[in-house]
Amino acid sequence: MVDLKGQYQKIKEEIDSEISKVIDSTAFINGPIVKEFQQNLAEYMGCRHVITCGNGTDALQISMMALGLQPGDEVITTPFTFIATVEVVALLGLTPVFVDVCPDTYNIDVTKIEAAITPRTKAIVPVHLFGQCADMERIMEIADKHGLYVIEDACQAIGAEVTFRDGSRRKAGTIGTIGCTSFFPSKNLGCYGDGGAIFTNDDDIATRLRGIANHGSFVKYHHDLVGVNSRLDSIQAAILNVKLRYLDSYNTARQKAADRYCQLLSGCAGITLPSVAPFTTHVFHQFTLCVDENIDRNQVQEKLKAAGIPSMVYYPVPIHEQKAFAKFGCKAGDFPVAEKLCRTVLSLPMHTEMTDEMQKYITDNLKDAVSSSRTIRIIGITGTLGAGKGTVVEYLKEKYGFVHFSVRDFLKEEVLRRGMEPNRDSFTQVANELRAAHTPSYVTDCLYERAAQQPHDAVIESIRTPGEIDSLQARGNFQLWAVDADPEIRYRRAVLRNSETDHVTYETFLANERREMTSTDPNKQNLSVCIARADTVFQNNGDLAALYQAVDEVMQAIPKKY
Ligand SMILES: Cc1ncc(COP(=O)(O)O)c(C=O)c1O
């Protein structure tokens, strides 16, 4: 994912010489180089104070301690971040309150922040994820209005800049009450070990931050506060002091690589490229795109890996669904945007040493992997004559782009091929002959094979016998829908085996009691979804809206991949 060696080779002489100087001086802890680096970084950032510390996680924790946040205080942040952001909140006994993110920038959705504010809210922690800033101008307005602190988690965004409405520009981490960053080796400004820094323009807060990072001590061996020991060592400061001179060129190299990725992948079906909000620059700590939900992301990663290309999923599980954070009472479904991103994001290699050839190779392989890892939904429709099956099929075609595979058309093809007159009798005759010659599920099996070989979601209409149902239900990506005019589903008694256990009403389906398609017991997975509301079409003299609504709700509720 990164090429730290290639980067080091280019500045080896400078780095080695600075490291030697520290070793010669033996001032390993709090040496003069640490102060020098802090000053240089403060100048680069355009802020009054830089307090270096052990890592980005410490930076966040020390910040929350310095602001005097107390157990029970609420801190608003995002569920789509690296664990450290929320870990320190929990460690200090504070309560994280999550706000969902924007689907395009992956950063906190500012339109949802105010609804999460309570009398116990003390701070907002926006995360500038993957290298672009959250909407800091709006966040500061909200914080000012409600008297809240803002701690920016700029661990992934050093050097990114926000442009305010008045045209002024400020660097990520210098806009809130406090900002934090990490010098983890792979970060845009990375050292050769662990390191972090805290930014503030407030003199009093800066004093508290320094004291807390130094065992709560403001005068040597006098400890006014309970603090921590968190220091950037001199060797790391020396390395960072050299690399800081290159930070802007490193960020530019990342931006160029990101542009190139976007050019190479533009218009690629199944991929949504990262977008940059108009008020911020993006320093592309990560180049993170999304693959469509009907693309098997694991398979894409496996194919990339086989071609020698690393890829990562940052992050596969949103914080509110992490076991350690279950006690805060959130559950799957609470933050749908973050949850969807966890299912779909994919980060490609991104660093300062990317070449055109590398990126061409990566994107060529990615395109192949994406187009060959698409999974499609295949739905089979069953139901009594006149129940509304055809109406559902038409709707799936029109609204959701399904392709229709019809038993009737298949039989007609076969009848014509045999030079017979196409009518009900000849269809029945041919169907019976085919079933006798092959298997009872032969006709629908053929349709399934056709459906599976094309790239679109497909609907097979209609499925008639238990044999057909069993055969199709054994396939991984098949789901059976019953469309029936009778809410009691009398039809299932006639057709579906084990109907008492297999019956899932539309309502219980929506209450998440639907039959899982992964069941290995074929007797227990006959019917997946019942569009019981089909009856309204007929009772209400063609009220199609209710039927369409039922289909829409089912389409939303079923996973895109199964
Ligand atoms: C968003 C975010 N916050 C906090 C951290 C913690 O930084 P560190 O690893 O230096 O403790 C990281 C580091 O990966 C991060 O990406």
Short description:
The protein is an alpha/beta fold and 562 residues long. It contains 22 helices and 19 strands.
- CATH fold-level topology of the largest domain: Aspartate Aminotransferase, domain 2
**Residue share in helices?**
40-55%
User: Which regions have little confidence, pLDDT < 50, spanning 5+ residues?
Assistant: 487-526
What hetero molecules are bound to the protein chains?
pyridoxal-5'-phosphate
CATH architecture label of the largest domain: 3-Layer(aba) Sandwich
Supply Rg: 30 Å
Counting structural domains, the number is 3
Strand order of the largest sheet: 1-9-8-5-4-2-3
Write down how many β-strands occur, each being a DSSP E stretch of 2 or more residues: 19
- Mean of all residue-level pLDDT scores: 89
What name goes with the CATH superfamily of the largest domain? Answer: Type I PLP-dependent aspartate aminotransferase-like (Major domain)
Q: Span between N and C termini? A: 30 Å
Number of helices: 22
Describe the largest sheet.
7 strands, mixed
Task: Quickly give the structural class.
Answer: alpha/beta
Q: What portion of residues belong to β-strands?
A: 5-15%
What top-tier CATH class of the largest domain fits best? Alpha Beta
Global geometry: elongated
